[in-house]
Design a protein that fits this description.
Shape: elongated
Amino acid sequence: APERLMGENFLYLLDQVQNNVGLSLVAVDEAHCVSEWGHDFRPEYRQLGRLRERYAEVPMLALTATATERVRDDILTQLRLRDPHIHIASFDRPNLYYEVHPKGRGAYSELLQLLREEPEASVIIYCQSRKSVDDLSEALRRDGIRALSYHAGLTAEQRNEYQSRFIRDDVTVLV
């Protein structure tokens, strides 16, 4: 997490690694978070460009699956990447299935029915606000669905734990 990485204690640790054995690579995952034009912009990611100054000779890799051309350009600028090789693969993800349903009066009942039809399916539900995420995940849990909230208001530790629980199938729904 950039909040931890850019802290003085962690940077001191990285300096020690660099001085004693050397850093071979700095990798920035979810690099779209760097860009103010990205769908998941996090201001703390903007600080990662400082790593270029601190470790100028260490190669840097930026990874994302969700960057438009504008976002890609901003990533290059913010991370100060020099002469980068840019690899763009297909956005086709055959392992993912999307369903969009209009929200009507019976939307919650319909959602509950869909989730109960395939109780072991891994499902991510998107909402407009943190409050709606928390309200929906609480309602789902009350109705017996293994669901967790997932949003920027959680601590980094909570997000990591909830994502791990989802990946391990401890919970089947992330809202």
